[in-house]
Specification:
It is a multi-pass membrane protein. InterPro entries: Tetraspanin/Peripherin, Tetraspanin_animals, Tetraspanin_CS, Tetraspanin_EC2_sf. By secondary structure, this protein is mainly α. The chain is 70% helix and 0% strand. It has 7 helices and no strands. The protein has helices spanning 2-32, 43-68, 71-115, 124-136, 151-156, 188-229, 232-239. Helix 1 packs antiparallel against helix 2 and helix 2 packs antiparallel against helix 3 (71-115). The two termini are 12 Å apart.
């Protein structure tokens, strides 16, 4: 069946894209993992990588079944696709659940991370803060004045915030609070939440898109099965112990 063959090619491409999306989520979340403590947030990404790998294997099974036009192989192909479809529905549900939890997670952790900032001998959490402030162009939790309540600010006693708060276009910025126009005005908490929720939406949309593709595949396989079941010559060959 040409339709099924085309679908199998699409399935192989989908498998690669799903794995890419899952890996992207892992890599991006690694830059923000100090701002949330619930590691279960990565479960949808783990599942989507597993689904992508499974889709690749399913594609190979489907190719073999199509080449031999085996009813048993095609039926197995449909059943596995159905199971993966259910898994992707679970990914979508989990994605929405954890997307809703991101704001609470970040709100719970971000003050502790900022209060532990060490600009002299920066640890991983301190480097994460500098990275986020530069990447998202933000400063502090709600704004740059939040730095005044941190241990680091009180210890340095120079009335300055980290240089990562300085606007990228400025080369002479020292982070001094006497020149607030040199600093990013937006706080990081809202932007971190927005970024993490966007990443989770990539997983949700990818799962939805490929669930739709799998429905198409199941339909194609069922059509092929129905055609073969109604073909007398095919039935005769099956009864004779050969494949059509």
């Amino acid at each position: 069946s040409k339709e099924l063959t085309m679908f199998l090619c699409l399935l192989q491409a989908a498998a690669g894209i799903l794995c890419y999306v899952g890996a992207y989520v892992f890599i991006t979340y690694d830059d923000y993992d100090h701002f949330f403590e619930d590691v279960y947030t990565l479960i949808p990404a783990v599942i989507i990588i597993a689904v992508g790998t499974l889709l690749f294997i399913i594609g190979l099974i489907g190719c073999c079944a199509t080449i031999r036009e085996s009813r048993c192989g095609l039926a197995t192909f449909v059943i596995i696709l159905l199971l993966v479809f259910v898994t992707e529905v679970v990914v979508v549900v989990l994605g929405y659940i954890y997307r809703a939890k991101v704001e609470d997670e970040v709100d719970h952790s971000i003050r502790k991370v900022y209060n532990g900032y060490n600009g002299t001998n920066p640890d991983a959490a301190s480097r994460a803060i500098d990275y986020v402030q530069r990447q998202l162009r933000c400063c502090g939790i709600h704004n740059y004045s939040d730095w005044e309540n941190t241990v680091w600010f009180k210890q340095t006693k120079n009335n300055s915030v980290p240089l990562s708060c300085c606007k990228a276009a400025l080369s002479n910025c020292t982070g001094s609070l006497t020149r607030p126009m040199d600093l990013y005005s937006e706080g990081c908490e809202a932007l971190v939440v927005k970024k993490l929720q966007e990443i989770m939406m990539y997983v949700i949309w990818a799962a939805l898109a490929f669930a739709a593709i799998q429905l198409l595949g199941m339909l194609c396989a069922c059509v092929v099965l129905c055609r073969r079941s109604r073909d007398p010559a095919y039935e005769l060959l099956i009864a004779g112990g050969t494949y059509a």
